[in-house]
Amino acid sequence: MKILIILTLKNTISVLLLFSCIFYARCQTDTTLVKSYRDQVMIRLNLDTNLEKYILSQRGNDKMELSINNKTRTSVSIDYRAISATLSFSPKFIPGNNEDDLKGKSSYTDLSFRFFPKRFIQTFYYKKVKGFYVENMKDFVPDWQEADAYLQFPDLKVVSFGGTTSYVFNKNFSAKSVYTHSEWQKKSSGSWIPYLDYDVSFFTNTINEVKNKEVQYKIGANMGYFYNWIIRDKVNVAPYLSVGLGGQFSGSQENNEQKENEQFVTLRMEGGLHVGYNSDRFLFGGRMNFRAYTYQKNGEAVENNNLYGLLYIGYRFAPPKVVKNTYDKVQKKIPVL
User: Fold this and answer.
1) Distance (Å, rounded) from C-alpha 134 to C-alpha 49?
2) Which residue in 83, 102, 146, 216 has the most C-beta neighbors within 10 A?
3) Selection from 188, 195, 53, 47 nearest residue 121 by Cα
4) What are the tens digits of pLDDT across the range 119-129?
5) Residue 28 binned pLDDT confidence (cut-offs 50, 70, 90)
6) Per DSSP, what are the bridge partners of residue 79?
7) Residue 312 burial (CB count, 10 A)
8) Kindly report the CA angle at 32 between 29 and 34, in degrees rounded to 5?
9) pLDDT per residue over 59-102, tens digit each?
10) Are 212 and 204 a contacting pair, CB within 8 Å?
11) Assessment of whether the complete model's pTM goes beyond 0.85
12) What are phi and psi of 18, to 5 degrees?
């Protein structure tokens, strides 16, 4: 599946404002009641499609779409009180993750943690991706066929460390009911949520024994609108949309020789739709999300697009005594937990 997201900043902001106005009246009149599962441990299994790709282009030239072989990944999430942790990986036994003969080998792993101190949301993550191939081979080789091998970059690796810091304006909006399902919002409500995103990424590659390395630092300011619509006692629909501007700073090396440092202005857009079912013990649902990240300089453009769907099923239970006692001890030293 391919996605090309081309929106001007003006049009993007207009869409965001229209999106929020649709729900504004209802948000103002609803009285939110939230049921907390804070003292329950929740284990959630997730299955999602990872369609992350990098699109490289230059004015007057065709775009090169770099993608990874692994299209489906699984993850396990554990939530208890203020802590939420997720570990993701891409198993080879899932169809679409094992076309190594045509697309080469790819690996994808990420680990994330999320905290909810009062109305703040703090997220940290680590991600490692290795092994890319050129997805749009037809643009470079007109007689290329689906059964032919793709041009591959097996040594291209991206390692990222980053996070986001968010703040929920509406105190009656439960971000946990959308992010981690550790709460259930009984009445429909929405909120503006501004957030900062930041990360450092290390790109490494070796071509014809020439080693290339690039380090990228990114920071951005974003504004999003989130809404949680309760259509039944145990069923919700939660759409959201956000846009942001930021900066990127990068420095590269070739065979350990320093090259020119560069700075870019970046544009980011993100959105999605979640549909879920919740009970005191069992929960399940699905979501569709997209992210678009682009920057330009002197006619050159780089895009990082991500479109994915996710299915999840979870179960809540009382925490073992050793877990509860350990958390209580840690909380005395770190009250924010």
Assistant:
1) 19
2) 216
3) 195
4) 899 999 999 98
5) very low
6) 42, 84
7) 19
8) 170
9) 556 678 888 886 677 888 888 887 778 887 766 656 555 667 78
10) yes
11) no
12) -65, -40
